Each structure stands twice: as C-alpha cells, then as structure tokens.
Amino acid sequence: MSRESQFPLFPLGLVALPGEEVALHIFEERYRVMIEECISASREFGIVWLAEDELKPVGCTCAVDRVLERMGDGRFNVLVRGRRPFRLIEREDSLPYPAGTIEALEDEVELLDAKATEDAHAAYATLVEAAIDSQPEAAQLAGMNAYDMARTIEFGLDAKQELLELRSENARMRLLARMLRAALRQLELTDRAGERARSNGKVRFA
C-alpha cells in the first residue's frame, strides 16, 4: 500500500465517504491556508472524524469541487467530494496546518457476492420508496455500490465510519443492508410525514 507524507488533514465532527459531496465553511486561518494550497495545487486533503477528542484512524481523502462563496474577512465556503479511504499512520507538525503520513487503503480481492448485493439494493429501494414515494431507476440502482447508496442516506457517524473502515465490498453490502432495514423499521414506527425531512438532498436517518 502506498504512503504519502505531509498530507493535509482536516479533523472534523463528520465522516466523509468516497463519492460523497460535503459543504465546508472554512474560517480558521490554518485551514484557510490548507484549502487554498489544495485548490491551487489541485491536491487532495483528508477528512478524519474527530469524535470526543479521539481522532479516528481511518479517513477519506477529498478534493475541492468548487468554491461556493468568498467573504470579505477571508472566510469561504467550498464543496468537496470524497475520493478514497486512507489510514493515518502518524501526525506531523512541520506544516502550518494539521498533516500526517497516510497509507492508501485498498479493498480485498474477492468474488462479488450476488446475494449480498441484491439484498442491499432491495433494502435501499424499499427505504427510498417509503421515504419519498419514489423508487430509484433499476439501471441506476444496479450500478450502485455500497458507498453510492450510503452517501445518499443521512446515517449516524458511527455507522458511516464502520462502512469506511471495511475493506470488503461484500462486507459493506451486508452491513449496509442491515442499516437500511433498521432505518426502514425506524421510519415505520414514526409519523412518516414528520420524518421525511431532508438534509443536503439526503434522506435523514440518524
């Protein structure tokens, strides 16, 4: 697995998944410097979940898609997209912003478990239909991997982190199917009209 040193890090109270869009408000000087450097050099940075003062060991690299707004005091808003999972090997203090040595994480080589994929796709379609009265198109659904489905649902951070740390797509599909079925049960036990709120285009299930 390849390693990269002096990799920019952004500890946050969130988990980013590969392919997921995340809107960030950049206001601290060190992160303004970091993101500006990443924009100018077309470089990735890493989002890592800072949970109760514990920095999780696995994060997701992200790239800035576009700058949404710049403010007169130097603050700005950006839209970033998750790219690939990584493991943080060690922190580094030589840069004016948080950084570290990271190791890219690759999935296991395995045969696709058709049943795990089918179960996850079916659970996803059922949940989406229950939440917004519309099913995803069959062709679109067939091409969705576990990350593709998970990033459209507002799961809790622990669940998203568990998905990110798994190195097997089959295992991710099995876990996701369980998460989707649990979310559906939660939806069925609540006032559905009041629980269909969305956040950033996602169906929310904490």
Q: Can you describe what's shown?
A:
This protein has 6 helices and 10 strands; from the N terminus they run E-E-H-E-E-E-E-E-H-H-H-E-H-H-E-E. The chain has a 5-stranded mixed beta barrel with strand order 1-3-5-6-7. It has 2 domains: 102 residues, Archaeosine Trna-guanine Transglycosylase, Chain: A, domain 4 (Roll); 91 residues, no CATH class. 31% of the residues are buried. Strand 6 and strand 7 form a beta hairpin. Helix 2 packs parallel to helix 6. The chain is α+β, with helices and mostly antiparallel strands.
List keywords for this structure.
206 residues; alpha+beta; Archaeosine Trna-guanine Transglycosylase, Chain: A, domain 4; 5-stranded mixed beta barrel; 3-stranded mixed beta sheet; 6 helices; globular
Quick gist of this model?
34% of the residues lie in helices and 33% in strands.
Strand order of the largest sheet: 1-3-5-6-7
CATH architecture of the largest domain: Roll
Distance between the termini: 33 Å
CATH homologous superfamily descriptor of the largest domain = LON domain-like
Strand content: 25-35%
Structural class: alpha+beta
The residue-averaged pLDDT reads: 92
Supply the number of structural domains. Answer: 2
Number of helices: 6
Explain the layout of strands and helices.
Layout: E1 3-12, E2 21-26, H1 29-40, E3 45-51, E4 54-55, E5 58-70, E6 76-92, E7 99-104, H2 114-132, H3 138-142, H4 146-150, E8 153-154, H5 157-165, H6 169-188, E9 198-199, E10 202-204
Parallel strand pairs: 1-3, 8-10
Antiparallel strand pairs: 1-7, 2-6, 3-4, 3-5, 5-6, 6-7, 9-10
